């Protein structure tokens, strides 16, 4: 029997399935500036969306912090206990001075924001199934697996979101991860290594961190990119392989890891995609999902430049302008049971009747 969790409790149907909390942002005596990651980018994305009048505070789903019990759905107790050591968190987040902080401060100022983003991804998984789509403005910690963190990823939010759905939502038994961050998503790959319910497509710079050869064995559709790959080649590969992945297996949920560290000039990504290329990439993935009627959960993952937040906001605005994300559709699906679920149930009932007659 799954444990009781607040992460799946009712969200007002008037809210957009866009998940965020001010607690996402990491601010502590300037320490966050010691990592190239813009640790306030999530709040900036929301502010841009508010300026464009797409959303207001009352329309955002407030993310809740994942509890230890929530995290233990995937993580080992031993791993969670390791996070009580500041030097372990300093290694995972790649912010060396964290080593010298008392752990109660590390918990409050570094790990609580990451636990809240993790809770946001789990919540967005359920929202995507209920509403057809959902975006967690944070999350996408794709280097973390059940027993090991790294690369600024302390909790395995992608694995958690999928495991929660498998355990708690009837009719969700197959998932596809489309990981388009510049780095290989070795965390979820290790977690789902021998799980045939999960199909992983991963496109990444083949020469950079983490270079995890063992984890690559879990990738069903591997797209290894060269240094400096540009828009035309990249978008053609994304389109071909996203379509191919979804034609190979039609999942019940897509988890889309939409890292923006593919941006030209990113100090860690090593690719050369323009802002317009990133917006187009997200459009390609959402079109593929929405045209097939597959629920999609997007997380924002890596992106290490100050202009990243504006690009994420522009991409969300573009998806809205194209009708690929739509509040009316999302709220109407929330207010009435999902029609396709009703059809599936009816087919099951008819099948059972036919079977019992025979």
Describe the structure concisely.
The protein is of the alpha/beta class and 358 residues long. The protein is 44% helix and 10% strand. The two termini are 34 Å apart.
Give an overview in words:
With 358 residues, the protein is α/β, with parallel strands linked by helices. Strands 2-1-3-8-7-4-5-6 form an eight-stranded parallel beta sheet, with helices on both faces. It is built from 13 helices and eight strands. Helix 1 packs across helix 11. The two termini are 34 Å apart. The model is unreliable at 337-358 (pLDDT under 50). The longest helix has 29 residues, at 103-131.
Question: How are the SSEs ordered, and which strands pair?
Answer:
Elements: E1 18-20, H1 41-51, E2 61-62, H2 68-71, H3 77-82, H4 86-93, H5 103-131, E3 133-136, H6 157-168, E4 175-179, H7 186-191, E5 198-205, H8 213-216, E6 221-225, H9 231-248, E7 253-257, H10 275-291, E8 296-299, H11 308-321, H12 327-335, H13 339-357
Parallel strand pairs: 1-2, 1-3, 3-8, 4-5, 4-7, 5-6, 7-8
